[in-house]
Amino acid sequence: xxxxxxxxxxxxxxxxxxxxxxxxxxxxxxxxxxxxxxxxxxxxxxxxxxxxxxxxxxxxxxxxxxxxxxxxxxxxxxxxxxxxxxxxxxxxxxxxxxxxxxxxxxxxxxxxxxxxxxxxxxxxxxxxxxxxxxxxxxxxx
Length: 141
Description:
Structural class: mainly alpha
Helix content: over 70%
Number of strands: 0
Low-confidence stretches: 1-21
Radius of gyration: 20 Å
Mean pLDDT: 83
Distance between the termini: 51 Å
């Protein structure tokens, strides 16, 4: 027990804690960001590039479909309507997970029949962000 207490105390001193603020945003130590970008410049740059590509894909798809595909015909003004929308997003994510599993089990990239492995991962990422927007009450606003 004493070992765990000592370990936890030391661990807390060396860790930077990321905590949610009341507005749902995250406080991030700028030193950690600079450190990671300096240590892993290609990885962090590629991550940012992918996020931008996904944002642009999101905008194009929202232009094509409109926000009601995620709102499931609701105004999302109460918790029950948000819950229905989040369940719809969960269902879409589940479809993508099953697609990824099938592609990986077959050992191909899935691109011969349309949407490939990377596209499926990208869609899951975007659905995750969309779910957060819905949960925060900002969808279609």
